Amino acid sequence: MTFPASPLALAIAAALVVTPALAVAETAADAVDLDRITVLGRRDTTPVAPSVADERARLQRVPGGTNLVDLRKAGRQATLRDALDYQPGIVLQEFFGGIDQPRLNIRGSGIQSNPVNRGVLLLQDGIPLNEADGSFVIGLLEQRNAAFISARRGANALSPGATTLGGEVDFYSLNGADERGRLRLEGGSDGRRGGQLAWGGSNERADWWLGSSHDEYDGYRHHADGKRDAVHFNSGWRAGDTFSNRTWVSWTDLFFHIPNVVPKERIHSDPRGVMGDGDTPQDKLANVYLRDPLRDTRQRRIANASEWGADDSRHTLGLWWQDTEDLFKNPTTHNVSDSDTWGTQYQWRGTHGALDYRLGASYTAGTTARDFYANNPANGTRLQRFGHYDLDASSLDVVAALGWQAGGSLRLLAESKWSRAERNATDLVNGGGLDQRYTHASPRVGAIWQPRDGLRLFANLSRSNEVPTWWEIAAAEAPANNPAAAQASLLRLRVQSADTLELGADGRIGGDGGMNWSLVAYRSKVDDELMSMVDDTGSRTGTYNYAAGTTHQGVEAGLDGRLPLADAGTLDYRLAWTWSDFSFDGGQFAGNRIAGVPEHMLSAELLWSAGGWRIGPNVRWLPRDTPTDHANTREIYQDGYALLGFRVDYTAADGRWSVFVHADNLTDRRYASSYVIRNVGTLAQPGFLQGVGRNGTVGFTWRF
Q1: Phi/psi of residue 485, nearest 5 degrees
Q2: For the residues of 56-117, what is the DSSP string, one character each?
Q3: Cβ-based neighbour number of residue 214 at 10 Å
Q4: Paired strand residues for 117
Q5: E runs forming strands in 453-569
Q6: What is the DSSP string of 20-44?
Q7: What local confidence, expressed as pLDDT, does residue 21 receive?
Q8: pLDDT tens digits for 127-178?
């Protein structure tokens, strides 16, 4: 494996030769966390609910890139971007800026799905949220129910079922030991309004927490309104000193209209517009108002986890079930799904002298009834059903890991995951079907060298595997000008696999007024990358494996710290830079960049803090243009942009109440927030989603 003379090579060199002068002694636990963490009252006895400090210590033993985000002191939480901004290695591209389906990816995994629905294992308190086939509906996530988020990028994932190139993102729920009660209200531009009411309680042996939230958004663009209602309950109890149990119950109702894509020139000429606002033949064919694309999803979920044993030998058993009803209507097709998913996960962690071990297994199974209907171009109603499938998915994943503290400063890790997945589809109209079985191993070796407190260097070599979901296997195509010709098919696809080398370092400079930093570089050689195809309206039509090989490489860097200003408060700063260099090795697009991910993404924030106030600017910057098709057609690149923002927060001295004002895109920049990815595109085709213009949000939180 060779590394070219590039920013990647320079970053690897920097990661490996960080000098001792960059690491004034501090505790090693501070090295991973790029966000300043404050534990807000969570007791060590809280059942099956690790604290931020617990998770920070666990991430210290991971030989690779991770993120830890405390949400309990955050300001605005209107969208997932609010929760995951300023995080290196996590690329989040908004679709419509509201309650919808932003494009989340880590190291390019799943970025080719449309909308994004794979590539990362989403977790709630360590228990999978994905459906049995590995897919997810990202708009169902309610970040305000989480106390903190832990992301283990790439092969650094710790769950048995996390085998993809993207790794895992874990949302750790608020519970009764975090706070007794909360009322949160938010409102802002373009009809944005939301609220959350939560109540909890705890004693030495048990706790409970119940939260309900509601969000609505009229939308910056036409036909972009949406709403989401969610209820989340969790309760834990402890029996004796060695056994504890926690249960989670949730219900989410998500709805949003889809304004869909427009030609590039309309980003500037009509930033709120959709197809149908003009009088061209193309507007008449793809009229959004008549075709009425939307998504309407409801999910019910229950999960339970038990822990038992001592610190040197601890067992965890999780069980979960969820039912998801999903109507996804694009301009040409109704995709109607009803999925039931259930699973169990067991892990055993322990230590023996200088050795530590982890054994685990996860089994997930589920059924999906999926129907395809042609969309009536005159009024958006259902026409004929052209696909009727019974889809059964299951995955068995087994993990074994062994760590060795080889010396006071060196830790070695060896791990292997073995997986067997089935995707069995039955065609209920035409008979027959397609059964596919996948078996693969995902090994990893890694090392951590910690020459002194406040400095950690690491490396790992791994293999990842991603099995296609039903969104890839069950394909539908309905010509916009001839819905009677709609047809569905089942595709035989291979596993996407990748071999990845990752090198990096993190540490802390100074004491309370110091700086946390991290720097990670990786290179992945990918085989059979899953690529989606779309039609002229931007609707998915199918998926294929790119057989000629692809390469994903990049750098993920972050800074976070506090600079004292004598008696005038402090300057708090956050900076994240993600460089993504993805390319085709051979075949039709040899040498081209893979469309979908900005080459550079930089976000930064600077806040003056004093007396409960936090005031300052922020920026989100894409300094280079990005190809939107694999042919790299220059005239349809996404143009680079910089979005300037500003925030003002105030928290009362007793912490009981707080207010905030956030403003984004202060210059009212007209830009494309995202786009559909094509093999070959043209300037005339609709392909871009206009970003939200100047906007603001105000909010109030009362803790009681």
Answers
A1: -90, 10
A2: HHHHTT-SS-EEEEE-TT-S--SSHHHHHTT-TT-EEE-SSSSSS--EEEBTTBTTTSSS--
A3: 15
A4: none
A5: 455-466, 474-477, 487-490, 496-509, 515-527, 529-534, 540-546, 550-564
A6: GGG-----GGGTT--S-----S--T
A7: 30
A8: 999 999 999 999 999 999 999 999 999 999 999 999 999 999 999 999 999 8
| The pair of three-digit structure tokens given for residue 111, joined into one six-digit string | 């970025």
How far apart CA 390 and CA 302 sit, in angstroms, is: 24
Q: What is the pLDDT of residues 540-578, one digit of tens each?
A: 889 999 999 999 999 999 999 999 988 889 999 999 999
Question: Which residues, other chains included, contact 339 with Cβ-Cβ below 8 Å and sequence gap of 6+?
Answer: 131, 132, 323, 324, 326, 366, 367, 368, 369
- Phi/psi for 588 (5° steps) reads -60, -35
User: Contact at 8 Å (CB) between 448 and 63?
Assistant: yes
Region 102-119 average pLDDT = 89
CA distance 304 to 290: 44
Place of tokens 């609709």: 686
Q: Taking the alpha carbons of 273, 275, 277, 282 in that order, is the dihedral positive or negative? A: positive
> Helix H segments across 359-420?
none
Tokens representing residue 350 in the block: 């322990």
Short-list 46, 24, 58, CA closest to 358: 58
Helix-, strand-, coil-residue percentages of the chain, each rounded to 5:
10, 55, 35
Instruction: Please report which helix (H) or strand (E) contains residue 436, including its range.
Output: strand 433-452
Instruction: State the first-to-last Cα distance of the chain, in angstroms, to the nearest integer.
Output: 57
Which two structure tokens, joined as six digits, stand for 650? 């105030």
Q: Is 246 left (phi over 0), alpha (psi -120 to 50) or beta?
A: beta
What's this model's pTM, rounded to 2 decimal places?
0.92
